[in-house]
Specification:
Length: about 300
Amino acid sequence: MGELTRPPRLSAGARVAVVAPSGPIVEERLQAGLDILRGWDLDPVVAPHVLTQDAELGYLAGTDADRAADLQRAWCDPSVSAVLSARGGFGAQRVVDLLDWEAMRAAGPKAFVGFSDATVLHEAFATRLGLATLYGPVAAGADFVKSAEAQEHLRATLFAPETVRTIPSRGTALVPGRARGVTVGGCLRLLATGVGTPGTHPGARGGLLLLEDVGEQPYSLDRSLTQLLRSGWLDGVAGVLLGSWDRCGPYEAVRAMLADRLGGLGVPVAEEFGFGHCADALTVPLGVTAELDADAGTLTLTEPALR
């Protein structure tokens, strides 16, 4: 697994697009997120269908074609320096194959930020565009708009990425050791359901794998991890970083399952890295070379996330 192209960092006055490739947004929270971005001296523009709700499938922010068009238009707009997901939910898998990836490649590199359902987009940006991305808070997320820590870490990553090259965990090592590789991963369910589909990673060989999820009981998380193990997707992985497991049952039960499924890989595994569905969520780049020290509970990037 090779390192990917790092997009340019942002500067004051940059225009950023907020898109909703998945679920619909609550307008009040969208406005709160936009106020935060404006407070960073950014110029946020909202895609046309961000506040739309599909007439038949209410869990989608408009039709597949509309959501895909919003994302592609934002990405291909030369005045836009970064594209931020407004929220997660479900729906990105339905639009990823509707995008004109040749046109998006021609538009050049820019930062993409999102997490959870955006996992499929992170994989596509990596495999189709060769581009590093940021697994971080969504612009209208409840946790983001309430958390000064999440806001500051994303702001620093976008504007001064050299100041956040070391990302600390809040826990301990499930399996001790150190490993070096290119960061990859995201939401466990999305990774498992994406196995064998177009535009996804063929596997995590040589990578430092990020995993997190929300609202899944330990047996369901076990099912997804077992799918990755049985498919060979985890063969040759260099190390594993575990994020949040919000509403996934008692953490002791989740931890026991993770130790059971991941312990046999023979690689360092570190927990509670504070990314994903949690308060004060950190932003972690995907597609960059880093070193995991499970004993110290740190991920150190070889270079800043953005150039």
